[in-house]
Amino acid sequence: MLIDDFIDKGKTYLYKEDQKEVQKEHFKAVIETTIHQIEKCGLYRQLCKQKNFDPRRDLKSVDDIKNIPYLTSANFKGKTGTPKKFLCVPESDIQVWQSSSGTSGDPSLIGKDPINLKRYVKVLNFGFAEVLNLDHFDWTLYFTPRPQKFYTIEDKIPDPIPSMLYVLILTNQTPMENRFYALKRADEEARKKGKIFDIDSEGTLNFLNSNPSEKGKGWVGGAIPLLYSYFSEMHKKTGQTFECGEDSVVVVGGGWKSFAGEQVSPEKFREVISRSLGIPQKNIRDSYNFSETDCMNPECEYHNKHVLPWEDIIIRDVETLEPVEMGETGLVNVINPIAYSYAGVSILQDDIAKITMEDNCPCGRRGKVIEIIGRAQGAEGKGCGAQLTGETDT
Amino acid sequence: MMVSMKKKITIPAFIFKPVYSEETTTQVYKRQDDIIEIEFPVFDKKEVLKTAESLSLKKRRAHDRNIDDVIEVINQLGALWSNPNYEYRKEALEILPITSGQSKVLCELEISNMLFLLNKKTIENQLFSELGGKQYLEDWIPKGNARIHAQPKGLVFHNLAGNAFLIGVLSLCYGLVTKNVNLLKLPHEEPYVPIKFCESIADIDKKIAKEIAALYWRGSRGDIFDELFSSGNVNCVLAWGGIESIEVIKKKAYHYGINVIDHGPKLSFSIISEDIFQDLNQMQDTAQKIAVDVAIWNQKACLSPRVIYIVEKPRKSAVFQVFKSNNIQINSQSSEFEAENNSIFNKFNQSQNISEFDGFDVATLMQRSIKSLKNEYSELSPLGFAKMLAEGLKNTDKTLPRMHLTQADGLDMAKKREYFFMNYGTNSSATIINPPKNKLDWTVVYLRDLPNMLEIDMCQDRFVIVTRISSVQDLIHSIRKERLQKYLQTISIYGSDDFVKNVAEEFSLLGAYRFPRIGEHNIQHIGMPWDGHYILQDMIKWVYIGYISQEHDESDEEQISLIKLSKSPNNTF
Ligand SMILES: [Zn+2]
Questions:
Q1: Number of helices and strands (H, E) in chain A?
Q2: Nearest to B160 by CA among B101, B240, B87
Q3: Considering A42, A90, A120, B542, which has the largest number of Cβ atoms within 10 A of its Cβ?
Q4: Is there a contact between A394 and B189 if contact means CB atoms under 8 Å apart?
Q5: Residues of each domain in chain B carrying CATH 3.40.309.10
Q6: Tens digits of per-residue pLDDT, B201-250?
Q7: Domain spans of chain A, in order of start
Q8: Higher per-residue confidence, B557 vs A19
Q9: How far apart are CA A258 and CA B294, in angstroms?
Q10: Nearest residue of B to residue A42 by CA position?
Q11: What pLDDT band is residue A389 in, cutting at 50, 70 and 90?
């Protein structure tokens, strides 16, 4: 399909002066994917019919992309949604069900077949290599537990797997003995308190004290609040610092809110981590992944989150759902022509964001730059009158 | 258009007077560019228990106060807040639209409705109809050979919810007028209004203010509730709020033998008799009234209608025979039936070629019952009513608008519409009606089948379902199936007096309490019960003194009797 050629030209497109031409090619790929999904997914076809949307008739110019009917994330929730009904391939073709990690009790499930997976891994590796400065790495320290199994793209996985875990497994090409994990299964005591995993302080310190920079370039990864609390605590207690190497990279994700609901400031985070690990601040990067898509938005050395060539993002007003101007905040509508096995060409996310610039990041990469504000907020108190089913604690 | 607002305010707690504390929490309200942050104190167990203890010591003092003085304080409170230039009111009307999501005009309407209750005359009326008169709170009133008296329960604990911002004020005033001392736990989502009213009370009467405390502690602190209830200081609990918190509070309070008056989540709706289809104007008028009922409180109050059930008896599918005989006329026993069906067939006639009628071929068309045809092509149908209700909501959006939606509200509305489309719209068993360009302000869903509990729960924030029932029994069956009996509260009814009485009889046996006329969901008649009981009665206990009868029978003295009938004019042998 067109999108496959498009992905292969990713590097050229990322830097291409004439972005109009890139948009044109992108648009063609979007049309093809949209038609594919409408033909293969009955439910999405019905939605498009109801919206009186015919891709052959209604997608005439790049601007029309905003008219592609979007699905909200609710459709993909495992319990309350119907993720299987949004497949565009037979269910037996699905190789892996990726689940969103989110804090909600009802994660999204996205079914990916080999075609979709191949593209997915390609664009992940592209983001790592071209934006995150991780074209190669010799060792990894992940703030996750050691995976029970190291899957490859060929493995069919019976149970849903959290996206972050899956990505860290798929993209890790370092020798087994160079993969380090900072979490371990919680001991009896901690498990009583409801913890499943705990920091393996001894193992982690051993590794960090072994002068990792000698092993070459490394990648320290995990969830932001976890790394932050671990290293800021350590700094307070012992003030100990380590040498992970000037070239090494910290790539994190999972949002900036701590477990207690407090916001971690990116500047503070970079300062703390850089001081502890001896990794320059410019190599400390966040990467945002929209749950029901194949897209990642990695930070460049200027800490701007780039929208990569295959992805498009439309920001919509929270009251009208109409697209807003650049710089205005709203709900994120991701246009994702990579989606093949599920009807995810246009997804309305639960996230609030804004587009801060287009084509003019000082790093030289073209395209949009997005700033994620957070999850949609402000669900009103549902008290006496309303909610018969569950509530939030006050 | 309004200028956007960014404001941060700090409010005190109220423990006999405004009080600040070291630890605070902040509630943020955000609607587009309007942002309000309210910072308020958080208290720990020690302070809460100490407050209850000192309140408890003032029970006698509250009891001894003259009822007229109490009424006067509330009367003045009502008068202060009725004044458009009152500073607190002016500030509240700036803030409430953003915290509650309802426009200023809607907030004003709700406030003035409530202020009507804080008026000397109204209070006295209410005391008269609920207790027999204010004198019972004041003195021991003869009743036959005995004298009875309404004693306050003592310390009333009001566990407030954040959905309807004035409930806390009413709850407090009822506690005061029954001469109780009052402890209010503020909801995190809406701490502002109760505090402002407490401050007003302190401005009016410092002494009565010393019998009131309104403060916040974290709802997750079960230990605070436990010790509060076990302290022996709390005599009565009024629980407003969500299901889970009420269940927790009930369990804890019952454990210590404290009575809980449950004002938990409720379900309210409307039932419309099929008489409505006799008059197009009546339909439009009714739809408009329901739209207003929906707009007030943005459906967040327990009494707001969520689903409109319209009775429409099933009819025989006669289309097939009619077409077969090539005679566009229905032979039916009922003339009404004929008239209605004729109106459909007139449309067929107009369309000349039946096979072109809305894209259905004749064969498909024939398979469909008259009933469903009627639904789709006649205004005099439940679907027609749904469209009128949509029109009504559109009008109401202008007269009683909402405020900007929060991010989550907007997303929620989009998801709900999508839910109904995906689950019902795709097989034509639902029609979703919303404002032009899919704006998210309101939604009407016409549903062929009765909604389940989850779907009824989606009906909040100007989201209404209209559906058809073939008889009232249909609905009763569905409510039983969904186990909704215990949530039933207000059912407004349109229909003949007999219809109204019949519905009220059936549904009150099922669990509902209020049966106003359509358009009066939000009107509470003074002196009428609430959720099955009289709210002032809940906060008092009836006590009496027996006297030795002056004239007694000889024979009475000889035998011991455990029952004595009072002698009173109304109560003779
Ligand atoms: Zn850049």
A1: 11, 16
A2: B240
A3: A120
A4: yes
A5: 268-312+387-510
A6: 999 999 999 999 999 998 888 899 999 999 999 999 999 877 777 888 99
A7: 1-71+304-377, 113-289
A8: A19
A9: 39
A10: B426
A11: low
- The residue type found at A350 is D
What distance in Å separates the CA atoms of residue A150 and residue B257, rounded to the nearest whole number?
58
Comparing CB atoms, the residue among A319, A378, A391 nearest residue B245 is: A391
- Kindly give, in sequence order, each residue whose CB lies less than 8 Å from that of residue B302, ignoring residues fewer than 6 positions away: A384, A385, A386, B164, B263, B265, B266, B268, B489, B490
Q: Is there a contact between B242 and A71 if contact means CB atoms under 8 Å apart?
A: no
CATH architecture of B268-312+387-510: 3-Layer(aba) Sandwich (3.40)
The one-character DSSP state at A65 is: G
pLDDT in tens, B489-541: 999 999 999 999 999 999 999 999 999 999 898 887 877 888 888 999 999 99
Contact flag A378-B164 (C-beta cutoff 8 Å): no
Alpha-carbon distance of B230 to B407, in angstroms, equals: 42
CB burial of B29-52 (b: ≥16 within 10 Å; e: otherwise) equals: bbbbebebebebbbbeeebbbebb
Place of tokens 């409307």: B270
pLDDT tens column, A129-143: 999 999 999 999 999
Residue A305 C-alpha to ligand 1 middle, in angstroms?
Answer: 7
DSSP code for B116: T
Record the tokens describing residue B212, joined without a space: 């009131």
Measured CA to CA, the distance from residue B86 to residue B66 in angstroms comes to: 28
User: A389: which chain B residues are within 8 Å (Cβ-Cβ)?
Assistant: 243, 453-454, 457
- Pick A385's closest partner by Cβ from B299, B404, B437: B299
pLDDT of residue B558: 59
**Which of A50, A321, A385 is closest, CB to CB, to B297?**
A385
Supply φ then ψ for residue A35, to 5 degrees.
Answer: -60, -45
Q: How far is CA A378 from the centre of its chain?
A: 24
Residues whose Cβ atom is located within 5 A of ion ligand 1: A 300, 302, 304, 361, 363, 365
Is domain A1-71+304-377 given the CATH code 2.30.38.10 in the classification?
yes
pLDDT band at A388 (very low <50, low <70, confident <90, very high): low
Q: Which pLDDT score is estimated for B358?
A: 37
Give mean pLDDT, residues B331-347.
31
What Rg do the C-alpha atoms of chain B give, in angstroms?
Answer: 28
Confidence category of residue B549, pLDDT binned at 50, 70, 90 = low
Average confidence (pLDDT) over A187-214: 87
- The tokens describing A274, both together, are 């850089």
| Cα within 13 Å of Cα(B482), Cβ side | 20
Closest CA–CA distance from residue A189 to any residue of chain B (Å): 23
Q: Which residues pair with A97 in a beta bridge?
A: A111
Facing A388 at nearest CB: one of B30, B243, B411: B243
Cβ-defined contact of A388 to B461 (cutoff 8 Å): no
B46-263, what's its fold? Answer: Aldehyde Dehydrogenase; Chain A, domain 1 (3.40.605)
Q: Which residues of A touch B419 (CB under 8 A)?
A: 74
Tell me what the mean pLDDT of segment A285-300 comes to: 93
Which tens digits make up the pLDDT trace of B95-126? Answer: 999 988 888 998 998 899 889 999 999 999 99
Contacts of A318 (CB under 8 A, 6+ apart): A330, A331, A352, A376, B32, B405, B406, B407, B409, B410, B411, B440
A352 contacts in chain B (CB < 8 Å): 407
Half-sphere exposure of residue B50, counting CA atoms within 13 Å on the CB side? 7
Structure tokens at B145: 């050979």
Q: Name the CATH architecture for the domain at A113-289.
A: 3-Layer(aba) Sandwich (3.40)
- Pair A73, B413: CB distance under 8 Å: no
Is the distance from CB of B571 to CB of B144 less than 8 angstroms? yes
